[in-house]
Every structure is written in structure tokens, then in C-alpha cells.
Amino acid sequence: MGFFDKVKDALTGSDEARAESARERAREAREEADRVTAEARAKADEAQREADEAARQADDPDDSMTAEDATTKQRLADEAKKEAAETEAEAGKQVAQAEAKAQKEAARAEADAERAAVDQQAAAEQQAAEHRSDVAEQRAEETKAAQQRTHTVQPGDTLAGIAQRYGVDAEEMARLNNLDNPELIYPGQVFKVPAG
Length: 196
Description:
Layout: H1 3-59, H2 67-147, E1 149-152, H3 159-166, H4 170-176, E2 190-193
Antiparallel strand pairs: 1-2
Helix pairs in contact: 1-2
């Protein structure tokens, strides 16, 4: 696995983890809102039952409850209904806020992942361009080396004579061939001839 693959995996993993975390928080918020909503509904149902019972007792002449007691129970039932409705509305508001926050975080994670992908692509393109440049340089050197002339020393040749024959400087030719003593050459030696 290459360097850029590792960077991609690290960035993608990080973005995916943030997105997953945002989804998890949204799920938890929904669960909490559902729990609060269920409690509010239960309170509202209980209040409705109490209100119905109070109304029934108020209408029942055999019941010993006074009208004042029935009115009080009705008022308490109405308050319980109101509180349950408010709690349910607050739970809905919390769910909406949690979902909006989770969507925002997920969008941010996606944007970060997209930026990372663009950066990764740019880095890969840069690396490819550098590689192409290195390859071109290497090929140029190989071509230059292939085009470089050579001369096999014959009996009676001198380095100065060989250099003069090819129209190049004798000192440059000695340097190119790593000769410590340009006056000491032997037949059969192969010398590189600098480009003229």
C-alpha cells in the first residue's frame, strides 16, 4: 500500500468516523425525543382519563363527589394535558434540532472527505509529474550516454592526437576518462570522447 493510499485511508476513516458519530448522536437524540414524547403522551392519556372520570362523577347523581371536587379534578386534568402537550412539543423540537445538527455534521464530514480527495488527487498528480520528469531526465542521460562516442587506442596514438581527431579538448577527454596521467595510454584502451 502506497503512502497516498495510507493518507486516503486515514482521512477517509476519520471522515467516516465523524459522519458515523453524527449519525449516532442523531439516533440517540431521536430515541430520547421518542422517550420524552411517550412519557408526555402517557401523562396526557392519564390526564384525559382523570378528566373523563371527573366528568363522569360530576354527572353521576349517586357519586359523592361534589361539583367543586369535579371542577378541581377537571382543572388538574386540563393542566396535565397542557403540560403533556408542551412536553411533547419540546421533545419534537429537540428531535428536530438533533437531526439538523447531525445533518450539518454529516455534510461537514462529506465536505472534508471531498477536500481530502481533491488534495489527494493533486498530490498524486504532482507525484506523477515528478516521476515523469525523473524518467525523462533518465532517458535523456541514457540517450546522451548512448550517443557518446568512443575510441579504441591504436599503437602510436596519443591522447592529444585522439582529441584533435575528434575536435575536442584533450584535458576534458582526460577528465571524462578519469586519467591521472594523460601521457600514459595503452593500445586497446577504450576512451569516451566528449561531445564536440
